Amino acid sequence: MSSCFYLGICLYAPSLALSSVTNLPTWASVIIMGSICTFYITIGGVKAVVYTDVIQTMLMFFGVLAVVILCWTDVGGFDQVWDIAAQGQRLEFFNLDTSPYTRHTLWSTTVIGIFMVFSFLGVAQPPYQRFASAPTLAHAQRLPLFFLLGMILLWGVFYTSGLVAYALYKDCDPLTSGKIEKPDQIIPFMVTDKLSHLTGVAGLFVAAVYGGVLSSLSSQGNAIACVVWEDFLKDRAFFRSFSDRKATNVIKVLSSITGLIAIGFGLLAGKLGTINYVLSLISAAIRGPLCGLFLVGLCAPWANTKGATAGLSVSLVFNIWMVIGRYFVSGKKPVRLPLSVEGCPQETVGGVLLNATVSALANATLTIATNTTAAPAKVAKNTIYDISYCFNGGIGIVLNYVVSSLVSVCTGPCLPGQIEERLVYTPCLRFYRTVYRLVGGPGRLHDEAGKKPEDKEEAMGMLPTH
After folding, report:
1. What is the number of alpha carbons within 13 Å of residue 365 lying toward its C-beta?
2. DSSP 345
3. Other C-beta atoms within 10 Å of 180: how many?
4. How far apart are CA 24 and CA 14, in angstroms?
5. What is the per-residue pLDDT across 287-346, written as a single tens digit (0 to 9) for each?
6. CA angle 135, 124, 111 (to 5 degrees)
């Protein structure tokens, strides 16, 4: 579910960029690029995915970096960009507000940062396929270090592009002045507005955006197809006798179906809000409980099947309920920082100065919002739906862990001797054994190391009756 929605976002983001620099409608771009990406995933398999990922990621990084450098040169250099951002209160590193309703604080961004690494690197299928493809375990263990370094560089470039855009348009905001319709269009607009005199730069930027996002699309599409085959189809009676060639053909069909689903979600994504906000909100709602399930398996050796099922179900329902409530019950939208149109050039239509009219409306709105002498407006109380989206993933993990543990204890927890030590985080297993001894647990703590498979099965079958 989460990956299919992510696929839609991956298609919608570059399509929005392309529609900003050309006359091609967003829906047409989604369909065309979705079809092309589906084709090469289906034909090439994981090898094509890995090779294209490398090329597309390099193109994305250097393409966006080139655009950022060219644009900050117009402003007067990075120091000037930083000073303008500081003056406009766009830099906030240590907001220590403890309210869970504040959208971004040091605490909330730390929580979502840890969750994103755990979710997208620790328990996701596409990274696992990379780990499994590495020649040795040592190689696989070094991959996350390179990944994190790359992410720091990549996100650094992306955040810098936002600061550059603010520095360029601090006195003439394209969104307020009506030059763009959505906040997500600000960077493509900046490219066409400031770099149109450089032949090919707009095309380079769109190629960079497409390259980066489609690399994610191909990874997720291939991963979904492989998971469906391995976990749901391969051991079924109808598919059990399939040769490797037939199995490959089935995976290709699944990849095609995945591409069609991506196109459908891509057409839907534009109606839900800004890209990063929607992706973080909905992905966390589903990935949070899923990460909680993995964490229960690793760090809750007492958990049984009933507990894990209950924990996943309760946390998933709760998180999805919060997302639905945020859209349909709360009604609150993220508060935007003040923007100005004072510096917009004057454009006359029918003898009316458009920038003066827009400026007057914007200033009037700002004055009404900030005037302390005006009658105070009735402020809506915060509800559970207004908790910062940064906490969604963490809530899913904690709720899953707690519910799984409680249900497992109530329905008969797994005993220490029933657990394969290699599948559990060692300190958690030691803690459980210690607690088990302290409460005087019945039976003997069996040491699984060195036992034959049949001995383990016998022990596991006998322990619950002790």
Report:
1. 12
2. P
3. 18
4. 12
5. 889 899 999 999 999 999 999 999 999 999 998 888 888 777 765 666 778 888 887 876
6. 125
